[in-house]
Amino acid sequence: MIFSIARFSLYFQFVFLTLQGFDDHRVLALPKTSENYSLQMRPGAPFKIALFADLHFGEAETTDWGPGQDVNSKRVMNTVLDDETPDFVIYLGDVITANNILIANASLYWDQAISPTKSRGIPWASVFGNHDDALFEWPMEWFSAPGIPRLICPEANSTHSGAEACSFRGTHRLELMKHEIDHNALSFSKNGPKELWPSVSNYVLQVSSSDGPKSPVVYLYFLDSGGGSYPEVISTAQADWFRHKSDQINPDLRVPELIFWHIPSRAYKKVAPRFGIHRPCVGLINKEGVAAQKAELGIMKLLTKRPSVKAIFVGHNHGLDWCCPNEKLWLCFARHTGYGGYGDWARGARILEITQKPFSVKSWIRMEDNVVHSRVVLSP
Amino acid sequence: MIFSIARFSLYFQFVFLTLQGFDDHRVLALPKTSENYSLQMRPGAPFKIALFADLHFGEAETTDWGPGQDVNSKRVMNTVLDDETPDFVIYLGDVITANNILIANASLYWDQAISPTKSRGIPWASVFGNHDDALFEWPMEWFSAPGIPRLICPEANSTHSGAEACSFRGTHRLELMKHEIDHNALSFSKNGPKELWPSVSNYVLQVSSSDGPKSPVVYLYFLDSGGGSYPEVISTAQADWFRHKSDQINPDLRVPELIFWHIPSRAYKKVAPRFGIHRPCVGLINKEGVAAQKAELGIMKLLTKRPSVKAIFVGHNHGLDWCCPNEKLWLCFARHTGYGGYGDWARGARILEITQKPFSVKSWIRMEDNVVHSRVVLSP
């Protein structure tokens, strides 16, 4: 079941809005009637994707500076969207900082994070980072006077209800994703196969030629790299799912594939440049060590052996924005987009531009001050 | 509301069983019609309490040796109950090791832990330890092949139902206590005032003279010392609750008071004997440092200033069984009763014997091999 009634009506609302006013949006989102959601390119135009990484909305919500960060993060997204007018946006994890959100209003912050994209009628997809869901940890200081703060229960949060909504508890990936999907016809996110849970955001989207949905140009694979409520890994089961899915929909490896997840795999440590960034790597900042997943359980072996896979894109490290080749596969960081999270490096977003004939993937980083840098071609 | 329908009918079942066959049980449990549950002494007899500490049922449930531990722990309890025939039992926390219990069947292990007491018709009360409730932690090894084990969903666990019951999640103090209370008329445990949550097992029981419930002999205070899903502390709010409650029911300090919780307060570190156990301390094992609460937020100040408080009893440290005076207040460890949990020191249970006229509290430790040691008088 792809459509709930609400989702169906929202979809028509989207189509209506599209016909009415959003004539500047560049992609035709086909009805989501198959398991593989389909995005369609416009005739004669490249397909442009903006990656928004590590926004960390809702961080330090009770302070003066916390909500100010979110305002700044929205400004970055607005700037990038106005400058680049992408066809599609990928939220590359750590959309929110759930760790510090006191009540089950995480989805309200999530809504804020997607609002610049949504308000422009641009479709998007999201994957989870390690800060998006979290176990609830009781702060020690609540046990001395003045005690546990009174809960302020959000009325607007229709995903949750009653006592369950208004209690101190952690956020859950499934709830966050359900809220995004149920309330947004423009969202191409999916909960992924149930057998992969607690890992959730595992799915594939097809970008089709303007000729029609039977002419795939590229497959976009999204994987949940864990963290938060469970370990930071891509599991053997996820690797198996990728192998089966890619064999099924792209058996002859003719369609190029791009991969998106949040936490760099351990292979990133091997290719990481030392003392600055030198060719063949391309990027502007190399300010910290790679904070890789806790283990490598098979996915990298599959991806490096598969020539149709062109590049992997991750966030997580706010002080890294490079792309480096690992044999024929590019390993890329996005760019820290949000004012939330650690680090004061200038904010921006990695852009991908995909052409069909001949197939190519170009990338660059668009900064908040409109500067563009780190142009690189990620396809032969 | 004290009685649910089920509880009410169970209570009558208990009274019926008592009249029928359990004539060897020593205490008359009065109907629980007031906030302060009342236990009544038999004419001319002392009131004897057995403390069962750190049973850790359900530990390593998937191994060969885990369930074997629980069998051994039951044997210890059976031996103590047969030798001492106490009037009342106190489960002093860490009844289960919830950390490693995969599904919401923690209450089934809890049922096993109380079964030796219940089957003899002896009433009891319980407090929580740091291992009784727990956040769910996904083991790293589940993310490589062979993957996440299939859930085995317990049908017998009527506290939980449907998908919520059969999912990987932590245990909750409120659910554990609800299960104990709803299914056991002999349980004198309480959920405690709602304003003290997430701290749960905070309540007081009155032991009355054989003359009737208007002649209290001693008040037994139970406090939740935290741990597991929240920090290991007795909060300022709990201290305030104790102050109000004790001022209300014992304003002239005429009735002696005994205190029970799981994790030693920091005051235990100050009185801890060094190199063996010497007078005025009394005990047999002193094998480790005191693992105290994370902070001292007011309860000890109240207790030491209140001459009606005679002693505090804790578990938590399996390698300590001493009582030491802290001015006029005795600080006592129980004795590790369970085969679950760390340490191979011989198992036993601290016994308390309370007389009415004149008031006295004597204590000793009854071992699994029937030996009795560490006799001490805890009242002037």
TrEMBL record, chains A, B:
A Pfam family recorded for this sequence: Metallophos
InterPro entries listed in its UniProt record: Calcineurin-like_PHP, PAP14/16/28/29
GO CC aspect terms: cytoplasm
Molecular function via GO: hydrolase activity, acting on ester bonds
Q: Where is the Calcineurin-like phosphoesterase domain?
A: 47-318
Q: Which domain of life is it from?
A: Eukaryota
Which protein, by its recorded name, is this? Answer: Calcineurin-like phosphoesterase domain-containing protein
Say which species the protein is native to. Answer: Carya illinoinensis
